[in-house]
Design a protein that fits this description.
The protein contains five helices and four strands; from the N terminus they run βαβαβαβαα. It has 170 residues and is α/β, with parallel strands linked by helices. α1 crosses α4 and α2 crosses α4.
């Protein structure tokens, strides 16, 4: 029996950095099990170039990444989401659309690397840290036995991932 490929949407206000990183990470690390998407409540319109640079350095896909509105996923012809994760505190506090299919939702707050000021090296370090934190959480998510879990257990598990201190050993 073939396991259903699950749709996952990562939300952030601007959809230019954290949600973009998450989309790319899950697209590669969850290939064959998950379809990854990202969007923003107030998209900037452009992907942060340091997000692209970080993904390329880590050998993650950057093609088809673009800053888009969550309204793109609130239409009748949009893919039905199984999971929706907010990765910034602003998006978590906003009133989100009612997603068709009532996906499981959780908040996985990640510090905004695009807000870091300083040298390019300092900014890239912030992007690398956000990438590492997201990859760790996504790894925990992808390792869950989702097919064997009822909806309440799925919800509990994905919420717990968002509450974990994300600092894996280097």
């Amino acid at each position: 029996m073939t396991e259903k490929i699950l749709n996952v949407l990562f939300l952030c206000t601007g959809n230019s950095a954290r949600s973009i990183l998450a989309e790319s990470i899950l697209r590669k690390d969850g290939a064959g099990r998950f379809n990854a998407f990202s969007a923003g409540s107030h998209p900037k319109g452009d992907v942060n170039p340091l997000a692209i640079e970080t993904l390329e350095k880590m050998n993650y896909p950057t093609h088809r990444l673009r800053s888009k509105s969550w309204d793109d996923f609130d239409r009748h012809d949009s893919p039905r989401m199984d999971f929706v994760f907010t990765v910034c505190d602003n998006a978590a506090g906003e009133v989100c659309p009612i997603w068709p299919g009532l996906p499981i939702k959780a908040h996985w707050g990640i510090e905004d690397p695009a807000a870091v000021e300083g040298t390019k090296i300092q900014k890239l370090a912030a992007f690398a840290l956000a990438f590492r934190d997201l990859r760790h959480r996504i790894s925990l998510f992808a390792s869950l036995p989702l097919a064997g879990l009822e909806a309440p257990a799925r919800q509990e598990n994905v919420m717990a991932i968002g509450k974990k201190e994300v600092r894996p050993a280097q």
